[in-house]
Write a structure and sequence with these properties.
Distance between the termini: 58 Å
Helix content: 40-55%
Shape: globular
Number of helices: 12
Strand order of the largest sheet: 3-2-1-4-5-7-6
Strand content: 15-25%
Structural class: alpha/beta
Length: about 260
Amino acid sequence: MTNPTTPPTPPTPTTRAHSFNAAAAQYAKNRPSYPPALFDAIEDLADHPLTGARVADIGAGTGIATALLRARGAEVIAIEPGDGMTAQFRRALPDIPIVRGNGNALPLADHSVDFLTYAQAWHWTDPAHSVPEALRVLRPGGALALWWNTSALDIPWITEQSERIRTHFGIDRVVEQNGSGLRSALADPTGRLDFAHRTVRWSRRVPVDTHLANLGSHSAFLVHDEASANAFLTEERNHLRTVFPDGIVEETYVVELVVALTS
């Protein structure tokens, strides 16, 4: 019999990465998108327009970023490892090709794309493999663009919520709390890539239920005990009703973008 005082084994990164497949519809419906200024910044740092470019969107998930890249005029192919996310992607974007795979072993030919993009996905890769794979498939002068929607921790209610999440789930919100230099080092610990960094601040106004469903679609919630996660969300609703009595939450994000060019 298991000792009831023994703490549960922390979920592995693989378990967390695959947790999204069971919540793909929730993810697609409630996760935030990305502002047009992000794609302006990508083009500026890459010194190359997305219009007409061959782009591979890796870890495409439900296609939030993929759809925006196509709307920008790019010729996009999506790469996604998960069954649930792929099925959701195909329902939403049936005319965009999606191939099963991941950043550690890209199902792409050498020097075949102008951009490799990772929206909220690079941290699920092993840079020892994903960096050389990026260099293999990018054309000379191509760009590797990585970005994350991070919470604006200079806003008190967001900071307080982040602390409640960290305490409840015992997690370290690395992506949201590290600085740009550390972020670039995490992206490529070998230092083979020279990243330029840009931030884009934006916000959206959503009902409390959408905000809570967005929170619940994160891996920390998906791999946690369901009763405990639901209890947290119920209590969080009470906090939010105090801050936003009209029931509309203003979520503020800072998109952290790093771009590296190939020679």
